[in-house]
Amino acid sequence: MPPKPVSNRWRGKDAIVLVHGVGNAAVGDYADLVKQISDVLGDRADKFAIYMVYYDQVNDWFQSKENAKVGFTRLVQGVRSMVANEKLKAKDPAALGNVISEVVGDVIWPVLLADARNAVRALLVDQLIQVVNDGDAAGVAPADQRISIIAHSMGCFHTYEVLHTIADDPTLGIGPASGGVTFANVVFMASPVRLIRTVAEKIDALVPQPETMRTLSKPLGMPMQASVTKSVPVARHTVSISGNLDPVSGHFFRAEPEWAYTNLPGQEVFVDEQQLAMIDGSDEFSLTEILHNSLQKRSAPEIQPNNPHSWDAYVQKHAGDLRGWLVSV
Amino acid sequence: MKTRMRSSIWLVVSVLAIPSSATLVRGQDVTLGDVVRALQAGAQRGKLDSINPAAKQILDLAAATLTEERVLGLSVTNVGKALNVNAGASVPKISIGVVNRNSTGARTIAFRRAVINLQLLGNVEIREAMTSAGVPRDTITAVLTPHRALVAAIRTAAQARVERALSNFERKYGPDSPELNFVEVGLNYVAQFVPLFRTGELTGPSPLEVVASYTSLNVKSNGTTKSTTTLSTGRVGLRYYFFGGDWGQGSGVAHYLKPSNMSLGLLAVGPRDASLRRVWGDGSRVGPFFGWGDYFVGYVVGPNRGAVVGTQKFIIPRVF
User: Which of A56, A96, A294, B234 is disulfide-compatible with B279, CB 3.0–4.6 A?
Assistant: First the structure.
């Protein structure tokens, strides 16, 4: 059976849609993150309908059918070597080549297979329609609904694409002009959209149906939907949160190359200062403090590696900001 | 003065004519005519003709397009469905026209454009005009109630369309779909660039798939010796997926009677009837084949002609 959209009961006018990144997320895997978001909302949490979109089942269809691990990977490898063989004309081709090697396996899938791209898009659109329908069923008119989307990693790419689809296709009825729905917040965490555009541009001859991939076919930017005499924005507030050690977000050892970082016009920008490790439970430290603490405790400092791409770490770090946006914007 | 009074009376009549919200719960009770009248009432309340004359003109054009009694009597549920038949990203900008009397639904371009304009006007220009004219929010909501029903019906139809697309994706790519071998993966990647194989953005995949397989679970009749033998075959052709309905959904006998796909093309066998041999090159024999779900039948001509029956399943996954 194809996946069915989740239906939740609305208790207020607010809903949050969470869109995860790459991985093998099964339904329920992000329960901790949902709880984390609830904690962020505090006493207002019960007024929010929270939806977690799981789309890995759809990715799995393609991996299985196309024999991703063996057959398609060969194709990907071919693309990789072609890209690496200096067909790149970026400012920093060596760095780009490395990055492509790292992330190409994850991002190439929706780039090279139009059906994979469109199937995930259909699933997300289905879920967003359900969110609006749930609100409508609870007596909240679409124009009064406050729906926020928080996406991470590849989820940012799919969200970005879906928002453009919603704007381009009025018969979906969930755009600001076509449905009266304006998303209150769209929060991109570690967005690879620009990186994907760069990769796709380099292999554009290999990208099927590029016009259906807005990341490639249009200038980067949050979409507007055209009504009969004016255009209206799909989202009221767009935020980009990234980390300066998170390569998926377009940062390489604290550098932010233009070809990798997703810089959407008008978005509110946060670039987190990240550390490769936590020392004694903190990622903010100086050598003096470390020595001082070690001498005090008479033990070596406890060092734990950090995952700069961690979704829950981004949420934790911006808990206060998130609450502010979700509750008041 | 007389004109203004007539307009006011018309406005009151229009608003009174709007069905109650209880009726509107059932989308089929709201008609396109209700929507047109509600938007005209809203436009008048918001003084759209002075605030945004271009929008008022487009509203008038849409109303002029939708004048037939039969069209105005369409339920918004049916309008939503009509709009979502083969809906795509772009709708040609035709603002006026006459709905084709011979059309079975209301699928003409002019109709689509007019309904979409009504949809957009109610959410943006007319709502904004009423707000800027100081019309209370509750009144705006009440006046635009039929429009909300129209948008809800469009959304519902869109959801059905998108779920149909997802179901088709699952039929073509899901766990029960035929596996592809390495060659087929490559050929089907290339096929994406051929219009016939293009996927619709939100209407689902192409029902076609390239078949280029080598399988060994086959039996061939021998026309000369009246015996049968097992052999390997190569097949090149097209697979067609049956979308919609319950094709490929059943188990047991139904699985064989109504599979998810059929295929057609050319079958090749080697110079000798034998398994795990090459099927191309000098001496190979060819003929047509027809596949139905997991199985196929074919007929090879030339020396030692005969019928071939086989399965499309691989002995070694992805290989043959």
Answer: B234
Listing DSSP states for A58-93 in one string gives HHHHHHHHTTIIIIIHHHHHHHHHHIIIII---SSH
Q: Which chain A residue's Cα is nearest to B141?
A: A141
More confident residue, B39 or B29: B39
Which among A64, A118, A174 is the nearest to B155, CB-wise?
A174
The answer to whether the predicted template modeling score (pTM) of the entire model surpasses 0.95 is: no
Cβ proximity of A5 and A127 under 8 Å? yes
SS3 for B117? helix
CB contact under 8 A, A61 and B125: no
Query: What are the sequence ranges of the domains in chain B?
Result: 2-169, 182-311
Find the CB nearest B52 among A4, A165, A229.
Answer: A229
pLDDT in tens, B89-129: 343 333 333 444 444 444 467 888 899 999 999 999 999 99
- Count other C-beta atoms under 10 Å from residue A270's C-beta: 16
State the average pLDDT over residues A264-275: 88
Domain ranges of chain A: 14-326
A291 Cβ contact list (under 8 Å, min separation 6): none
Among B89, B123, B181, beta carbon nearest to A180 = B123
* Residues from chain B contacting residue A3 (CB–CB below 8 Å): 166
Cβ-based neighbours of A107, under 8 Å, separated by 6 or more: A154, A157, A192, A195, A196, A199
- Distance (Å) from the alpha carbon of A307 to chain B's nearest alpha carbon: 33
Answer whether A168 sits within 8 Å of B121, measured CB to CB.
Answer: no
CA pair distance B36, A79, nearest whole angstrom? 54
pLDDT tier for residue B10 given thresholds of 50, 70 and 90: very low
- Residue A257 makes CB contacts below 8 A (sequence gap 6+) with A90, A91, A92, A95, A96, A250
Interface ipTM > 0.90: no
| Per-residue pLDDT tens digits for B128-165 | 999 999 999 999 999 999 999 999 999 999 999 999 99
